[in-house]
Write the structure tokens for this entry.
Amino acid sequence: MNRTLTMLLAAALILAFAQGALSQQDMKTLAPAAFGKLTRPAAQFNHDQHNEKAQLTDCVVCHHGGADGKQDKTASTEGTPCADCHKLKTVGKGTSLTNAYHKQCIGCHQAKGKGPIACGQCHKR
Ligand code: HEC
Ligand code: HEC
Ligand code: HEC
Ligand code: HEC
């Protein structure tokens, strides 16, 4: 491959990456519209800083897919709100929206022995 083409490709890649990161780079807390009015202060979650510190490079760890009522850990769905699949009130054995966040966030913090697990550490006033 010639030099100019390589540089053009690199520039395109950087641009694509910067655009992809634009929407979540300003995220500091989580307050999904699906909840309506929150009963607790919005959970602390500085998306990019959190994932850098926790060394989470694989998006699918949190942004999994799902079909036919089954979780799909191979299909990445970053950009799709959890609330698109997890509802406030669930019928049957599905994971509700609050449980989805709690299980994923607290579950990993417990497994790694790092990160907040007490209510007030995430729902900070
Ligand atoms: C520790 C879990 C976690 C990891 C890892 C993670 N994300 Fe997210 N991300 C979230 C959560 C939670 C939200 C908010 C989802 C919602 O609104 O329901 C979110 C939202 C987003 C959004 C939407 C922004 C918005 O304003 O709604 C994008 C885009 C995104 N993430 C991209 C990525 C990419 C790309 C990666 C991998 C480099 C990644 N995420 C890794 C948890 C994570
Ligand atoms: C494309 C649909 C889809 C999206 C988007 C999605 N999920 Fe899921 N998720 C599922 C399905 C389907 C299951 C399996 C059935 C169930 O438990 O509801 C599941 C299961 C889970 C479980 C229970 C399984 C376990 O590991 O304990 C948690 C926790 C979870 N999701 C959290 C989240 C979070 C947090 C987000 C957003 C960052 C998210 N999900 C985004 C479809 C989705
Ligand atoms: C796959 C693992 C994993 C998941 C999922 C995860 N975390 Fe963490 N989190 C960590 C680790 C590891 C740390 C400690 C980072 C360090 O300081 O070394 C951490 C630290 C934090 C901190 C402390 C401040 C900071 O930004 O470092 C907050 C707040 C936090 N997590 C909130 C959340 C929330 C809210 C969610 C769910 C949306 C979540 N985490 C999901 C692994 C995870
Ligand atoms: C690791 C971070 C974390 C911890 C620890 C945590 N939560 Fe949450 N919680 C969240 C996230 C993320 C959401 C969804 C977004 C939001 O509400 O800010 C949520 C949502 C909620 C909601 C539904 C939204 C609302 O405000 O009405 C309630 C209620 C709640 N949490 C209560 C608790 C209680 C009680 C505890 C302690 C037993 C706790 N949480 C511990 C992260 C956490």
Remarks:
- The beta strands are 29-30, 43-44, 65-67, 70-72.
- The domain at 27-122 is CATH 3.90.10.10 (Cytochrome C3).
- The chain has one domain: 27-122.
- The longest strand covers residues 65-67.
